[in-house]
Amino acid sequence: MFSLGQRLKKNYVFPPGVVAFAALLALTCMLSSSRICWSGGHPSSAGAYKIVIHKSKQLLELRENGVRVKSYRVVLGIAPEGRKSLVGDKKTPEGNYYICMKSASSRFRISYPGEDDAQYAFEKGLISLDTRDAIISKIREGKPPPWNTKLGGWVGIHGYPSNEYQRRWVALLYPKPHNWTDGCIALWNFEIEELFATVPLGTPVTILP
Q: Could you say which of 10, 43, 56, 173 would form a disulfide bridge with 98 (CB–CB 3.0 to 4.6 Å)?
């Protein structure tokens, strides 16, 4: 028997029954919870997985027990260099976060702003002490932080279109375009589907410069 990481490395194809069950589960969640399937989840509950994103390389690594089992080329915010600190700055965050929400429609949301972001913004006079404390409190509870502050939020890891017939060649022959998101991390749709099926809620996410 292979571990899930080994199956990924061997391009394992899930049996049709498993795929059908996963699709039914996702649809049931979406219909019963106004599009959001799962929310909350602390990193301590994530198990063996970790996501590491290298902004300078436009690369996302999926690690299992510290070993890289998969990597994806990604698209970042329009202005990717430097840490995200304000809503609308088009930057992809830098720091330590976790998957705080999974949704069948928007895929992953990460726990930005994090504790370091909140402290930095407070010291710069961008947010109040109460706002800083509210962000830190939610992070320590393993819940999504407030996303209506000056720091912005709703930063996600999501997909963008790649038709089924493109799957065999698009990743090799059509490089991902220039950075275009508002700060999110984007992969081909067929890649995010693979990641979504693998990565549990609470998975740590480290974003490096």
A: 43
Q: What is the pLDDT of residues 63-72, one digit of tens each?
A: 999 999 999 9
**Cβ(122)–Cβ(132) under 8 Å?**
yes
- Report the pLDDT averaged over residues 14-36: 38
Residues 6+ apart with CB under 8 A from 46: 98, 99, 200, 201, 202, 203, 204
The answer to whether residues 62 and 71 touch, using CB atoms and an 8 Å cutoff, is: yes
Question: Measured between alpha carbons, how far is 209 from 205 in angstroms, rounded to an integer?
Answer: 13
Q: Which two tokens stand for residue 185?
A: 């991390």
DSSP 3-state of 39? strand
111 phi and psi angles, rounded to 5 deg:
-80, 50
Instruction: State the Cα–Cα distance between residues 201 and 18, nearest whole angstrom.
Output: 19
Question: Global pTM?
Answer: 0.75
Q: Length of the chain in residues, anyone?
A: 209
Interval 144-200: pLDDT, tens: 999 999 999 999 999 987 665 555 555 555 567 789 999 999 998 889 999 999 999
| Burial 119-152, CB ≥16 within 10 A → b, else e | ebbbeeebbeeebbebbbebbeebbbbbeebebb
Q: What is the pLDDT of residues 67-100, one digit of tens each?
A: 999 999 999 999 989 999 999 999 999 999 999 9
